[in-house]
Design a protein that fits this description.
alpha+beta; KilA_N; 2 domains; 61% helix; single chain
């Protein structure tokens, strides 16, 4: 399911942008509910209020360690006077604020963190704010439900490929073992995959997470489950080629790092999900 980039409140379309892991809402679009012709003026009038400056300053002090308090105090002392004017760009540039983002151009406008967007909506209309909050909550719940569906599908695919993996173990490894070794072999091969992808064995995970139910794969991300599914098929083929465990571990880890980098679009880090095995 494609991530939503807008929502509609009382026939007003409101665009969203993903900024610093948060969904920022367009204040310019929200302002159209009050003045469709000059939404920028609505935002500027809101910024003239002493109450608005107090709220923005408090939000930045809580959430932004680089916020410039001296510049904020200057705006605060002037706010509310007839001569005081303030644009989003001026506020951002002078105080290094992060709760507002202002972009020029066709798809630009002023965007705000949800905390601030809801405060602005309250200034527009208490009714509009209530419907905005409800619509935003619905959007977030839809995303959660979609993520759960993706996770369940990935987990199911992983379990299907697990059968391919165990069949290869049974056909190519088990016949070479004595009866006392067989039960440990399946667990060892599962931990080979765990080490390559998560950097930890099932036993180590249980020892580090005594309060959690299930196993480490139950807490894997969708990306990790997709990679795990691919790794099970790949390891099955390497088992058929009679490659030794250590060689398979290195190749599986290289595969995990490459695919994680591709799926998440960032440089691999030395974390549990991208641990580089020493060769």
């Amino acid at each position: 399911m494609k991530k939503a980039t807008s929502l509609t409140v009382q026939n007003t379309a409101i665009n969203l942008k993903r900024i610093n892991s948060s969904d920022f809402l367009s204040l310019t679009d929200i302002a159209r509910a009050k003045n469709p012709d000059e939404p920028k003026d609505v935002v500027k009038n809101w910024l003239r209020s002493r109450q608005t400056i107090d709220f923005l300053g408090l939000w930045e002090q809580i959430n932004n360690p680089d916020f410039k308090g001296v510049e904020f105090d200057s705006f605060k002392s002037q706010a509310g006077s007839n001569s005081f004017t303030l644009s989003p760009t001026k506020w951002i540039e002078n105080t290094h604020a992060v709760g507002l983002v202002s972009k020029a151009g066709r798809y630009g406008g002023t965007f705000a963190h949800p905390d601030i967007a809801f405060e602005f909506a309250s200034w527009i209309s208490a009714e509009f704010k209530l419907f905005l909050i409800k619509e935003f909550q619905r959007l977030k719940q839809d995303e959660i439900d979609s993520k759960k569906l993706e996770w369940n599908l990935s987990r199911s695919l992983s379990k299907i490929n697990y059968r391919i993996h165990t069949d290869a173990i049974q056909a190519y490894i088990v016949p070479k073992l004595n009866p006392s070794q067989i039960n440990f072999t399946y667990a060892d091969e599962a931990d080979l995959l765990n080490l390559a992808l998560f950097g930890i064995t099932a036993k180590q995970w249980r020892e580090q997470n005594p309060d959690k139910q299930g196993n480490l794969r139950d807490y894997a991300s969708v990306e990790e489950l997709v990679i795990l599914s691919n790794m099970e098929s790949y390891n099955a083929e390497m088992i058929k080629q009679t490659l030794p465990p250590q060689q398979r571990l290195v190749q599986l880890n290289d595969m995990a790092i490459t695919q994680m980098n591709s799926l998440t679009k960032h440089e691999p880090k030395l974390t549990s999900s991208t641990l580089k095995i020493k060769k």
